């Protein structure tokens, strides 16, 4: 039905004649049939003719059938691809509220929860009938540091409430607070023996960086490295990062240059040659040093003294003593020590010594036909060789390292076989080996010729010294 100025019209809707600037309220009353389908519609139109001219205007509209369910609405927030926001800058988001399927009351937009970092926020418009398009503008305080902030936006109409959370990545404003300045190397208090040191670190990309008053170039990400020349003693290095507002961060580094080697005194006389299998080394250095003998760390007393026993092996031994101070200056003393086997015997004396330890022989060395005869098993074993005896052939084998020596009682021939070498070498002895009181004796020269030991003869003491 149609009503004009509150009076229902019956039958065909009559023409309504209005004077200029006259108003009339036309009400269209409609009822949706029970069997109407969702999205069905009814079109209607107003046709306006001018009585004094040929002009005509038509206004059309449509009534849509919607679902029979409670009122509601949909809130959509249009976010940019990048939700990074510099502290102090403003960001605007678009908010769209559409009926779903309809909503009667005004929609009111608000920000829920307290966000202490926010400087300003505003909805424009803050409320209105749906469909409603609004903008949400906000900014964070300039001194806000890097952080993620969740903003909960609420749309409310009557008893209907919708919320949506937007996450903003707030970026620290480099001009709002003093720049970040992190020194990676060196530490604020350090000591070195290098006359040049490289200062490395990180600051704001936009900051102006100086080291001891000289501007330093940075990488795009704010990292930097700069060489600084040091002088002996304490050096003060001042690093300053300043932003465009003049706010600055200052770091002072105290770097000591120490190129003086530590004192290292060795009080023990270390021999070039010895028959000992160990040596005790005593010495003195500075109390703030680390002392090593080889890979062995030594303990210092309060005066910087140290003592250590070093094991030695037969043959060449290298001994290196190192003292390092806090600046990594190293004082090094190196020694070469040859460890030998020393056997001493005297003609007619059963007392002998091996590496300065006294032993007693079963039979004393003797002189026969101007040839000095010595017990071969005792000497060979004292020099680290293995001795074998074959009773059937009356033969003796002496094995040391890769060499095997064969001699026979009563024969002046000795055969020497070296591993990996084809054939055997034959040498002729001054006298044939012989057995005395169950012990095999050979000419003294055989010891040097076959075994390779050095021999020293003291005619006054009638003493033989065999060294290898």
What does this protein structure show overall?
With 468 residues, this protein is mainly beta. The strands form 11 sheets. A 5-stranded mixed sheet has the order 7-14-13-9-11, with no helix packed on it. Strands 16-22-21-18-19 form a 5-stranded mixed sheet, with no helix packed on it. A hairpin with a 2-residue loop joins β18 (208-211) and β19 (214-215). It is elongated and about 170 Å long. The mean pLDDT is 92.
Question: CA-to-CA gap between the ends?
Answer: 135 Å
Helix content: under 10%
Determine the strand fraction and express it as a percent band: over 45%
Strand order of the largest sheet: 7-14-13-9-11
Rg for CA atoms:
54 Å
The major β-sheet equals:
5 strands, mixed
Tell how many strands the DSSP assignment holds: 44
Mean pLDDT score: 92
Number of helices: 2
Q: Class by helix and strand content?
A: mainly beta
Shape: elongated
Low-confidence stretches: none
Question: What's this model, at a glance?
Answer:
The protein is mainly β and about 475 residues long. A five-stranded mixed β-sheet has the order 7-14-13-9-11, with no helix packed on it. A five-stranded mixed β-sheet has the order 16-22-21-18-19, with no helix packed on it.
Please supply descriptive tags for the structure shown above.
five-stranded mixed β-sheet, 3% helix, 44 strands, 468 residues, mainly beta, 55% strand
């Amino acid at each position: 039905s149609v009503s004009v100025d509150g009076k229902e019209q019956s039958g065909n809707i009559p023409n309504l004649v209005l004077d200029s600037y006259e108003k009339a309220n036309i009400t269209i009353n409609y009822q949706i049939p029970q069997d109407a389908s969702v999205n069905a519609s009814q079109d209607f139109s107003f046709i306006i003719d001018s009585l004094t001219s040929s002009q005509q205007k038509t206004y059309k509209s449509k009534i849509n059938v919607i679902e029979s369910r409670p009122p509601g609405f949909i809130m959509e927030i249009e976010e940019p691809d990048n939700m990074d926001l510099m502290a102090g800058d403003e960001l605007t988001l678009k908010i769209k509220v559409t009926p779903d399927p309809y909503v009667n009351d005004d929609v009111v937009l608000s920000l829920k929860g307290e966000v202490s970092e926010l400087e300003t926020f505003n909805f424009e418009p803050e409320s209105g009938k749906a469909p409603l398009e609004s903008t949400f503008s906000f900014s964070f305080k300039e001194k806000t540091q890097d952080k993620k902030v969740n903003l909960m936006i609420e749309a409310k109409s009557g008893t209907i409430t919708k919320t949506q959370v937007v996450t903003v990545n707030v970026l620290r404003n480099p001009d709002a607070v003093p720049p970040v300045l992190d020194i990676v190397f060196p530490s604020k208090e350090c000591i070195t023996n290098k006359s040049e040191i490289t200062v490395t670190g990180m600051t704001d990309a936009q900051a102006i960086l100086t080291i001891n008053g000289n501007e330093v170039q940075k990488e795009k990400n704010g990292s930097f490295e700069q060489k600084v020349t040091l002088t002996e003693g304490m050096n003060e290095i001042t690093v300053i990062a300043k932003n465009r507002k003049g706010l600055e961060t200052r770091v002072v580094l105290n770097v000591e240059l120490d190129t003086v080697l530590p004192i290292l005194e060795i009080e023990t006389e270390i021999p070039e040659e010895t028959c000992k299998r160990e040596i005790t080394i005593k010495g003195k250095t500075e109390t703030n040093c680390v002392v090593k003998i080889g890979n062995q760390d030594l303990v210092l007393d309060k005066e910087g003294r140290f003592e250590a026993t070093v094991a030695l092996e037969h043959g060449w031994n290298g001994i290196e003593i190192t003292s390092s101070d806090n600046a990594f200056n190293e004082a090094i003393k190196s020694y070469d020590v040859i460890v030998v086997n020393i056997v001493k015997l005297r003609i007619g004396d059963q007392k002998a010594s091996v590496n300065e330890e006294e032993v007693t022989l079963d039979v004393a060395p003797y002189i026969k036909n101007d040839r000095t005869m010595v017990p071969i098993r005792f000497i060979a074993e004292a020099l680290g060789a293995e001795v074998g005896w074959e009773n059937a052939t009356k033969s003796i084998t002496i094995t040391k390292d890769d060499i095997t020596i064969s001699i026979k009682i009563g024969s002046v021939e000795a055969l020497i076989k070296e591993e990996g070498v084809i054939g055997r070498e034959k040498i002729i002895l001054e006298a044939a080996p012989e057995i005395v009181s169950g012990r095999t004796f050979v000419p003294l020269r055989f010891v040097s010729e076959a075994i390779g030991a050095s021999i020293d003869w003291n005619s006054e003491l009638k003493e033989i010294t065999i060294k290898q």
